[in-house]
Amino acid sequence: NKKEIEGLIHNYHWMAKEVQRLQRVIYGTDIPMRSWGVAQYGIEATLPKGSKGKSQAELRDMDLREERLYKRLCKFEER
After folding, report:
1. pTM
2. Domain-located, residue 19
3. Of the candidates 46, 63, 45, 43, the residue with the CA atom closest to the CA atom of residue 54
């Protein structure tokens, strides 16, 4: 029990910053996780592009990721 308390005190600064980061990611005003991409040249520039909407698989993956982050945030806030 003493070791656990020492660990929490030692990691407090890191955990507080992580809670703030997770709150920004989950509740908004954070940069998107996907990259913006790069310009294409040559034949790749003439090929058809995919739709701008998100696929069902991508939406499901985003939901799973947000759920994982939310559980992690709750755990840190509880500590």
Report:
1. 0.53
2. yes
3. 63
Q: How many domains does the chain have?
A: 1
| 25-55: pLDDT as tens digits | 888 765 555 555 566 677 777 777 777 777 8
Q: Is residue 9 part of a domain?
A: yes
Q: 38-71 burial, b if ≥16 CB within 10 A, otherwise e? A: eeeeeeeeeeeeeeeeeeeeeeeeeeeeeeeeee
Residue numbers of the domain that contains 7: 1-32+55-79
Under DSSP, the state recorded for 29 is -
Tokens representing 77 are 């806030």
